[in-house]
């Protein structure tokens, strides 16, 4: 509050979710807040080039919903008001990662029946109020079983092809016919549209294809700004198998053996213990930075190799050198704070250069562990969409 007061410019503080935008910054402490506010309001700052700060152009401070699950819903509404919810997709990465960069799964894996009912209800009510005839995409965040509406887009979303392939419903055709005056009831009579939201017996995972291999100097940390240039999908008997297939399709196949390097933010260390122990149970060796290793060891998890900070020589090897040596098969790096993020950027760039799978969120790391375990236990088979939807 003191920092904001001393700036001397209008500031709007509201408890909401950061969607993104120009001159947007994410801060984690007072020092970072002061740095960003000073930069934004300086004569040469980011906002100066766009007209500066004024009563009509205030700085907006939004609060993240930490550890929330993001959800996409694709639906079609006809001119009679009838609505068909085609797919509910649960994101793998937490809310805060742009939906275009986040992996998602259909059907959802952890949402309760009551949450699913509310997602149906909210989507229908929003579509009715907007008077949509055709496709609508609504994005939500779910925190402690409470559903927050992030945004509604009365148009086709990038998820439409994924939902169509995952469910077998020709969603683009359905939307086109509805926009031309055909009702959903008529499409149900022709068996083009099912009576209810389809729930396949298999799991489909959509994964973003990120162009970091073409830009090895760019930090691969995911955030509110969309960076993906394409998408792939994996289909399997379980979430883990589908996720592993999607990773392979995106060019970052998951390892089945070797060593995993961990560098976790303080806020992620408690939840990271279970992931690290599961990796040990799967036979992986673990390497970790001093802070992460100390925490894991204090919780009974064996860490084989201690890794120093970037450029440090006290432990004989730093993270970048270890990754470059070919001795690391996967990296889990969840940074926070300015210095930690700088070190993390170098680690993630090393992963890109050396083609090592790198997970920057605990949720993605957990999904990777499940994928490794499922594929090791059950393998996978390949099936065409025609076979699945015959």
H/E topology pattern: HEHEEEEHEEHHHEEHEHEHEHEHEHH
User: Any idea what the radius of gyration is?
Assistant: 23 Å
Strand order of the largest sheet: 7-6-3-4-5-8-9
Q: Tell me the structural class.
A: alpha/beta
Mean pLDDT: 84
Query: Major beta sheet, specifics?
Result: 7 strands, antiparallel
Descriptive notes:
The model is unreliable at 1-5 and 13-20 (pLDDT under 50). The longest helix has 18 residues, at 113-130. The chain is built from 13 helices and 14 strands. It is an alpha/beta fold. The strands form three sheets. Strands 7-6-3-4-5-8-9 form a seven-stranded antiparallel sheet, sandwiched between helices. The chain has a five-stranded parallel sheet with strand order 12-11-10-13-14, sandwiched between helices. The chain is globular and about 70 Å long.
Sequence-ordered SSE layout with sheet pairings:
Blueprint: H1 2-7, E1 11-14, H2 30-41, E2 59-62, E3 69-77, E4 83-94, E5 104-106, H3 113-130, E6 134-143, E7 146-153, H4 160-167, H5 171-179, H6 184-189, E8 203-209, E9 230-236, H7 239-249, E10 259-264, H8 269-281, E11 285-289, H9 290-298, E12 305-307, H10 319-324, E13 330-334, H11 338-354, E14 357-359, H12 362-378, H13 385-388
């Amino acid at each position: 509050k003191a920092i904001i007061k001393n700036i001397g410019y209008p500031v709007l503080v509201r408890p909401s979710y950061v969607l993104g935008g120009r001159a947007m910054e994410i801060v984690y402490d007072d020092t970072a807040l002061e740095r960003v506010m000073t930069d934004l309001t300086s004569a040469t700052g980011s906002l100066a080039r766009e007209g500066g700060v004024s009563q009509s152009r205030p700085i907006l401070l939004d609060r993240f919903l930490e550890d929330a699950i993001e959800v996409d819903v694709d639906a079609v509404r006809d001119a009679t008001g009838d609505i068909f919810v085609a797919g509910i997709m649960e994101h793998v990465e937490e809310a805060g990662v742009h939906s275009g960069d986040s992996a998602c799964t259909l059907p959802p894996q952890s949402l309760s029946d009551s949450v699913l009912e509310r997602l149906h209800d909210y989507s229908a009510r929003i579509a009715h109020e907007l008077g949509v005839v055709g496709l609508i995409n609504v994005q939500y965040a779910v925190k402690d079983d409470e559903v927050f509406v992030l945004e509604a887009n009365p148009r086709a979303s990038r998820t439409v092809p994924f939902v169509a392939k995952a469910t077998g419903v020709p969603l683009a055709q359905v939307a086109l016919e509805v926009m031309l005056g055909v009702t959903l009831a008529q499409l149900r009579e022709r068996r083009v549209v099912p009576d209810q939201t389809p729930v396949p017996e298999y799991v489909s995972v959509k994964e973003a294809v990120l162009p970091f291999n073409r830009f090895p100097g760019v930090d691969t940390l995911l955030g509110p700004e969309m960076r993906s240039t394409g998408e792939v999908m994996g289909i399997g008997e379980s979430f883990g198998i589908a996720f592993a297939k999607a990773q392979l399709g995106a060019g970052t196949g998951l390892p089945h053996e070797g060593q995993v390097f961990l560098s976790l933010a303080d806020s992620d260390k408690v939840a990271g213990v279970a992931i690290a122990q599961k990796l040990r149970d799967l036979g992986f060796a673990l390497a970790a930075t001093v802070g992460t290793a100390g925490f894991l060891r204090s919780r009974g998890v064996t860490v084989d190799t201690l890794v120093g900070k970037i450029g440090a020589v006290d432990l004989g090897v730093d993270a970048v050198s270890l990754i470059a040596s070919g001795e690391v098969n996967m990296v889990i790096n969840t940074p926070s704070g300015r210095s930690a993020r700088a070190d993390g950027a170098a680690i993630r760039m090393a992963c890109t250069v050396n083609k090592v799978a790198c997970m920057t969120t605990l949720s993605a790391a957990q999904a990777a562990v499940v994928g490794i375990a499922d594929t090791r236990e059950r393998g996978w088979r390949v099936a065409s969409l025609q076979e699945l939807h015959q």
